[in-house]
TrEMBL record:
Residues 1-72 form the Ubiquitin-like domain. One of its GO terms (cellular component) is endoplasmic reticulum membrane. Belongs to the steroid 5-alpha reductase family. Its main location: endoplasmic reticulum. The chain crosses the membrane at residues 158-177, 189-208, 229-249, 255-274. It comes from Funneliformis caledonium. One of its GO terms (molecular function) is oxidoreductase activity, acting on the CH-CH group of donors. Keywords: Lipid biosynthesis, Lipid metabolism, Membrane, NADP, Oxidoreductase, Transmembrane, Transmembrane helix. The keyword Nuclease does not apply. The lineage of its organism: Eukaryota, Fungi, Fungi incertae sedis, Mucoromycota, Glomeromycotina. SUPFAM superfamilies: Ubiquitin-like. GO terms for biological process: very long-chain fatty acid biosynthetic process. Pfam families: Steroid_dh, ubiquitin. It is found in: Endoplasmic reticulum membrane. This is 105_t:CDS:1.
Length: 299
């Protein structure tokens, strides 16, 4: 069948395009056909819609009732970057900033001092968290969308580089929390309780990520209902455990910077959880009705 591709940008010289494609073709095949005629627009840059409905990869054109002679709208999403690369860039910032502030205290704060036990434990907790995130990005996660607009990498990285990197490191490792200071003193029971809760939440978060990974065969965008640890209570237990991770850091450090990062992160994760929860319930008619979005028994 023959399909016309119209650009939503009125000043495009490459469109409209006329594409000849089999009647049983998939959206992926159509994107490849467009790419062959307009090589600037590789598939990840393309957003195709019919009557404002997005044509999702992995589905056939028939599923969207597209027939011979129909017109499809095209939008250029701009230069793209892989989600895996974005995540690696995001988490790399704190991995660099925290050792700088922890080990070069005389250069940054203008004086030598001994770190308190709280500062040392907090340092290893935070470093372990972000190293874990890098390892998960490289070896665990399977992404439903391969790329995102390149310009978004700066916005996404700011959250981690500035809030959990520069800002958090500066305030946690400063001389006001040093050994012998009142602000840096913590009871041993509090330190080790926070460290224990942190470790449990980290392992739990990793386990939920493995469950999600195993739902999607390599190279596919398959979506299934997740079950098991955490998922029997909420749609996004990974976000819930991530919140517990940072709550333990907040209680340990008593740092306003840590609470700020948690507040911003929790708000974003909760919005994502609500969106995913609604998507699950819309896509799967047998989705468990007793699950909450992110916080067990609450929301």
């Amino acid at each position: 069948m023959q399909i016309t591709i119209n650009s939503r940008s009125g000043n495009s010289q490459k469109f409209p395009l006329t594409i000849d494609i089999p009647a049983d073709a998939t959206v992926d095949q159509l994107k490849q056909a467009i790419y062959k005629k307009a090589s600037k627009y590789y598939p990840d840059r393309q957003r195709l819609t019919v009557n404002q409905q997005v044509l999702n990869e992995g589905k056939t054109l028939k599923e969207f009732n597209i027939k011979d002679g129909d017109t499809i709208s095209f939008k250029d999403l701009g230069p793209q970057i892989s989600w895996r690369t974005v995540f690696c860039i995001e988490y790399f910032g704190p991995i660099v900033f925290h050792p700088i502030f922890y080990y070069f205290n005389s250069q940054i704060y203008g004086k030598e001092f001994e770190h308190s036990k709280m500062q040392t434990i907090a340092y290893y907790m935070i470093m372990a968290h972000f190293i874990k995130r890098e390892i998960e990005t490289l070896f665990v996660h399977r992404f439903s969308h391969g790329t995102m607009p390149f310009k978004n990498v700066f916005k996404n990285s700011f959250h981690y580089h500035a809030l959990s990197g520069l800002n958090l490191a500066y305030w946690v490792y400063g001389p006001w929390n040093a050994a012998g200071s009142l602000d840096g003193k913590r009871e041993d029971w509090l330190i080790w309780t926070c460290a224990g809760v942190f470790a449990w939440a980290q392992v739990s978060n990793l386990y939920t990520h493995i469950i999600l990974r195993n739902l999607r065969p390599p190279g596919t965008r398959v979506r299934r209902i997740p079950y098991g640890y955490g998922f029997n209570l909420v749609s996004c237990p990974n976000y819930f455990f991530e919140t517990i991770v940072w709550l333990s850091v907040c209680i340990l450090t008593k740092s306003f910077a840590a609470w700020l990062f948690l507040a911003v992160g929790f708000t974003q994760m909760y919005l994502w959880a609500i969106k995913k929860h609604k998507s699950y319930r819309k896509e799967f008619k047998d989705y468990p009705k007793n699950r909450k979005a992110m916080i067990p028994f609450i929301a």
